Structure formats: C-alpha cells, structure tokens
Here is the input.
Amino acid sequence: MTELATENSFPLQVIAIELQDRPGSVNSVAEVFSGRGLQIEAFHGTAGNLSPDDHAHALIVFRAGADRANLVTRVLRRLSSVRCAELLGDDDPRLIESVLIARSDTRPPAGISVCALSAQTALAAGSPAALHAWLAGDAAPQRLGALRLDLLLGA
Amino acid sequence: MDISVIGASGGCGREVVTRLVSGGVLGRRELLQLVGGNPASRRPSYLHGLRADLQDAYAENIPEIDVTDDADEIVGDIVVMAAGATFPTDSAKAGGLQSRDDLARTNHALFEHFAAAVAHNRKGNPPVVIVLSNPVELGVHVFCRHLPREYVLGMGAFSDSQRFRWEIASQLGVVRQRVHASMAGEHGLGMVPLWSTVRIHGLQADELAATIARLRDGTVSADFPARLAAEHAALMAQMMADPIDGPVRALARVARLPPDLRVALKPFPVHYSQAKTISATATATVELVTALCEGRAVEICAQYQHRGELGIHGPIGNRLILEGAVRRVVPGDDLADEELALLQACGARCRAKIREWSDD
Here is the structure.
C-alpha cells in the first residue's frame, strides 16, 4: 500500500456508477483506482437483480483531491463496463448512510432515524454528515457493524 | 497509463493504435482511447469498426478500447495528436502544396480546439502531449499556450534522429543500434544535423573522427541549409516532371547524397510514392510512448518550446532529458559553434513563422 494511497488528509469523495451487469465489470473499475494509487475505502455494489431499476450499481468511497477525483470519474465514464459515473458531493441529499447499533433508550439527534431490529440491535440511518457527527460525539451509540452507504434511486 | 490517440482514423493514427495494441504497450485494464479528429467526418463509424477489428485480432492481450469524437472526453495520461491535414500524395500536385505554411493555415484551428479541451479538463494533472501532426512546431506552440511546456513534445525531431542514425548506420554497414546521433531544428527543410552528437559503438575517438569526415564528404554544417534548399528544389522538379516514375528516380538521386541530406530529403519521394512515412513515424511514436509508460529517464531529440535554453527561443527540435515529462534541455557544450548558431537561427525563423501563422 503506497503512502499516496493511505494519505488521509484528502477529502472523502463518493462516485456513483451504473455498471454493465457482467463478470469483470468491478475488476475494471477497481483497476482505475489501484492504477492511480488510490485506495477504495468503501465499495457498495449490487447486481441488477438486486436493484429496483434492474441495473447494477456501485457506490465507491475514496480519498483524493478534486482534480484527481474528477479525472477518475471521467476515466470511469469511458470504460465499456460502466454505463454512467457521477461524482457526488458528500452533502448530496440522495446519499443515505446507515449502521447497525446497540439498541438503547437514547434519542438520536435530528436527521438520524433509528429503527429497532431486535431486543439488542437497531439500524441508524441518515445523511453521512449527521451520522458521522453522532458517531464521533459523546452521545455516540455502540456500533455493531460497518457503515453502509446507499443512494436513493429515482429520488 | 491511459493513452488517447487523436486522429486515430488517419493513416498514421491508425498505425500508432495498431502498434500500441499489437506491441502490448498497455495492460488489459488500461485505456486506449481512439479520438476522432474530424467531427464532420464522412466515416463516423470507422473508429468503432477499428476497435472491433483490433479486439478480434489481439483478444489475448488487449487493453480497454474507447471511442469518442468529443474532445472534452479525452482522458489519456499520454495524448498523441495525429489529427489534421497532410500533403496530398500525388506528386503532380506537389507544386501547389509543398509548403508547411499551407498545412499551418489548415491545422491551426484543430490544434487550438484539442489543446483547449485537454487543458480545460486536466488543469492540475496535465497529460504528456506528443504532436505528430504538421507543422509540428506550430502544434507544440499551440499546445504550450494551454499546457505547461514540460508536457508537450513534437515527434518530428525524434523520427528525424532515428532516420539520421539509420542513414549513418546503413552507409557504414552496421546496425542502427550501434549509432547515436541527433537531428534537431525544424522538421522538414529547417532541420539541423548535429554531427557533434554522432557516436558509433566500437569506434575510438580518432576512428570516429575519420569516419564522420568520410561520411560528410567535405561538407560543413554552415552550408547545410543552402545545400538542402538546392537539392530539394531539384528533387521536387524531378518528381513533378514524372509523377509515375519520379519518386523512384528521386529515391535513387537521394541515395547518392550525404547522410544528413538524405534524412531531410528522402521523406519527400517516400511520401509521393504514396507509401508515405507512416511506418517510420508510428514506430518512433510507439518507442517514445513506451519510454514514457515505463517511466525511464531517457535522452531524446524532440520539438520543445525553448525559452532561452542554449540561446534558443521557439518550438524547435533539440536534445532533451525525458523523465515522465521534460526535465531539461541537454546542455550544448558538446556542440560545434556553427551547429549552435544554426539552432538559434532556426528558433528565430520558427518564431517568425508562428507569428505569421497564428497572429501571436
């Protein structure tokens, strides 16, 4: 892993892509990042049969400056395995982040919804900024899983 | 590295693309972008067909191939500029279009169009641009108005230097790999042979000096421009007088000249034979692209926008140290005074022409 790849002073970037639903698509996308020394911090992908619009989608989270993030997005758009690619701002209202937490009586802050799943677990969801602020604060809940990013389709 | 070839449907562009793929220069997941150079092309499907043909031919190890006609979609880390008009290959018409000025008027807008688009989309992360189109000096100048000059190279002097090495090697009966030599200056009739840079592997200093003297046959650098102009005029007259057999006779005439004149003159009968100089140009281009892809530090001779180096101003061919981009111009302390003077005069002449062509 390169120093460039682990550099965390760059802002978080999110690219939403719609993929051709075929073997090798994710590989070709990943090469665009690894070939430039960029580490993918999160990759949330689904095949078409799991998506409401029947298209394969992926959300990719990585750290990079604006110029490199733009270039990566433009290169992704030119791949035969990618139908479209969009660089999203982290305040994009279509982005929803969620995480499994330990169920408690603590009220979540504004902008975060909590849904009980069992006697011990709940799912917290909201905008990435609001969820990150809650998880980093003094009143943070106990996390039971990894952060999961999603994009509202058709919103 | 991703590579974009602008003008990939032209003779030279297609040859470059084919050699990049057949030579395995790019990995399977790297992008080779075929960019149409003419939005009003009468063959809009050509590049899509070329992509399919390349995939059929080289399926075992083929990069990702993209096709676009939109300059704003160019994403290559290396951009090969091969689009634009060129001289007709009919020697009967050569008299009406033998000036690089004619090409300049035609290709200036195209250079400007692609240079502006590439620079607009790659402000903080410029690609290396290799200009093949002519006049290569104008192409380098226009791209340097939009991109840092360290990222812009012209292929003319690179391929001329390869030819110079071959002309020396073939006369001595050795392989080209044993000969080092640079042909600088303006591509075409303004080139400057740098005999001071000639080295032949295996020859010691006194043997080398004697060999060079024999090759030059009593000629001196200061007389080269005048000899070249006179021989060029005679050559063109010969070809225009006999469009069918003229190029063959012209090749025979060129073969009797010293190596430096052969370098400058042989491309004319080759072009008007209708074979054109595609293979030599494409091979040299791929060699340069390969050096860039491998990240090697190499000395090359190519057109570069000088800003006072060696007393030269303007986009002429010279020796450069290339390491991802141009690191520096090779110091000229090994050059003869008259070679340096020819380079400086060439730079001044190029600048004057570019002012005329582009109103700069």
Residues 1-6 of chain A have pLDDT under 50 and may be disordered. Chain A has two domains: 3-88, 95-151. Helices of chain A lie at 3-6, 25-34, 66-77, 128-136. The beta strands of chain A are 12-19, 40-46, 56-63, 82-88, 95-102, 112-116, 121-126, 148-151.
